[in-house]
Structure formats: structure tokens, C-alpha cells
Design a protein that fits this description.
elongated; 7 strands; alpha/beta; 47% helix
Amino acid sequence: MKIKTVMGLILQVVTALLIFGMTMNCFAEAVKWYEHPGYWFKNVFYSPANGSLSPEIKAVDLKGNKKSFNDYSSQYILLSFWASWCPPCMKELPQLEKLESKYSDNDFKVLALNVHDTKEDSLKFIEKHKLKLTYLLDIEGATVNNFAISPIPTNFLIHKESNKIIQKWQGKNDVAEIELFLNDLIRK
């Protein structure tokens, strides 16, 4: 009888420890998700809104040179956050390349900023798809964190002189919608 009681007590303690451990693990994961740039609830509270000042980009080009908005002369910059493993990004990037080509005379530039990829993965993707946009890497995650990116692709149209976000598009984007917005903006 005493052995059954001791075994039952041990079983209850082990069960309690397992439940406590799983609870703490879930809590630790939730904290990690919050601290990791780009998770949805951080995006809801911190992502810059239309009309607000744009955070500065802290990125490097494919040659490792540090880049900021001041390195580009275009008045309108579409900052596009993408990743090589993102199917909507794969569809969107060639369309953005055509959009940049079409509106280059209107002082428009696309900066494609890769998130969550290594430089090697980014280069493989760019070479495979023969893309010619200006590609940047967010090695330290600072730009993704400053813009609170989630989901990808996410695009911000930024007016360089005022440094304000004109429009933001999140998730699976229709580049035709971006083009319509750009047409209206340029006509004004």
C-alpha cells in the first residue's frame, strides 16, 4: 500500500513538473515571439502608419556597402520587404521590377530589402530569377524591427523629402493596386 501511495505521489509530482515545464516553455516561446522582429502582435502596435515618419533603413547592398535612403536620389521610394522562401514575394518581385522600369522617369525607385535570408540564399534567388532591382540585406534585423514587418511581402511607399510613409501594403500584394495608387499620386 505504501509503495502505491509513493508511486502515485511521484506520478503526480512528475505530471505537475511536466505541465509546469510546458507552460514555461510556451511562455518562453511567447516572449521570444514578441522580442523577435516582425511577429504579428508587435506589428499591430508598432508598425509605422500612413502619414507617419519613416524609420531609417539600416541595410547593406549585395556588395556589403551600408545603405540609407540618402543614397538614392528618387523622390518616391517603394521599400519592399521580401524573402526567397515566400511564394507571394516570388510573384511580386518581377512585377515590381516592371513597375520601377515604367515609372523611373517619374522619380520612382524600388528598394527590395530581404528579410530572414542569408546573403547566399538571396543571391541564389536573384540570379535564378534574373532580377535587376536594387537589393538590400537586413543583416542585423534592425530595419525589419524598426518597420515591425509582418507578414511579408510588405511594401512602404515613402516620400523621400518629407521622409513620410505615403502608403503601406501588407501581405499578398497586387502590384496593380500599387500602380493605381502611384498613378494617382503622380498626377497630383
